[in-house]
Amino acid sequence: MTRLLARIGLVATVALVPASAATAESVAEFYKGKTINIIIGAGPGGPYDNLARTFAQHVRRFIPGNPTMVPQNMAGASSLRAAEYLYNVAPRNGTVLGVLQSMIILDKLIDPTEKIEPQKLGWLGRVQPLDNVGIAWHTTGVRTIAEARQKAIIYGANSGIGTTSIIPWALNRFVGTRFNVIPGYESQTTEILAMERGEIEGIGSVSLADLTAKPGWIGDKIAVLYTTTASRQAELPDVPAIPELAADEAGRAVLGVLASMSDIGHTVAAPPGVPADRLQALRDAFARLVVDPSFVEEATKRGIHVMPRSAEEITQSVEQDMSLPPAMVGALKALTVAPAAR
Hints:
Layout: H1 2-23, H2 27-31, E1 35-40, H3 47-59, E2 68-73, H4 80-88, E3 96-100, H5 103-110, E4 122-128, E5 132-137, H6 145-150, E6 153-156, H7 163-175, E7 179-182, H8 188-197, E8 202-207, H9 208-212, E9 222-227, H10 242-245, H11 249-264, E10 266-270, H12 276-289, H13 293-301, E11 309-310, H14 311-322, H15 326-335
Parallel strand pairs: 1-2, 1-3, 6-7, 6-8
Antiparallel strand pairs: 3-10, 4-10, 4-11, 5-8, 5-9
C-alpha cells in the first residue's frame, strides 16, 4: 500500500509540472497581437513628441512578439501629468511606456507630495541628452546675459514647474537677470510661434537642435544667452553654461542641480511593477534600438542626436538626484519658485 501511494504521489507530481509550465507565458507570447501605448509627456510637434514617434516607429522590431506601438500625447505640467498616469493608473504589465521630461525628478524633490516616486519607475534608458538653451528674440536688442541684467524680457513657459520657468527664475535670483515668465503654453512649438508673433520675447529653455534646424535663426533672429547644461556646448563655445553664471557657491550648487536634468535627458520608462522578464525584454529592445543604423539614421534626419545611456546608468542618476541632502532640496524649493509667490 505504501509503495502504491508513493507511485500515485509521483504520478500526480509529474502531471502537475506540464500544467504549471503551460501557464508560464513567454514574453513573445504575451506581446504577440498586443499594443504598447507610448505616453508622451508633452504636446504635439515638440522634441519629445518627435523622439517618441521615431522611437515608436522602430522599437517594435526589437521587442519579442512585435507588438503594435501607439503614441499618445499627454501634455501637462512638464510631463508630471504623464508621469502620474504612468505611476498610478497605467497597467503594470508592460503594455504602457512613457517618454518623460527629466523635470519630473526636480518636481518631486521640490514637492514631496507629488504622487510619483521617480526612482521606482522602470527606466529603459536615455536616447539623447537635453541640449537646451535660453534665447532672446531679435527685437529685444538683448544679446548677452549682461544685457539681460539691464533690460526686462518676457519669457514664455509651458508651466510653473518646468525648466522654461524655473531656470529663468533661478537666474533672476542668482545672476540678477530680469526675466518675466508667463506660463501656460502647451509645448515648445507653441512657445516659438508666440515668440514669432510678438506675444513673448524669448524662451528660457528651448532645444538647440530645433533652433539650428531653422536656417539663419541663431545670430539673426535670436541670441543665445546661456545653455542649460552643466558645461558649455561644443556648438556654442562662447555661450556660458548656467552654473558658471552664479556669483557664489550656493548659486552654482543650485544651478548645477538644474543643469543635471540635461544629462538625464530624453528618457523612456515603464511603470513600476512590470514583470521582470518583460521589463528586461523592453530594456534589451531599447539597447538594441539605439545602436541600430536605420534608427540612428532616421533619428539624425529628424534632428535627434542619439547619445544613449543605459537603464542602469539612468536609474543610478535618478536615485542620486532623489537622495540630495535636505539643505540642497530646501534651497531648490525656496529659490526656484515664482517670484510673485515668494
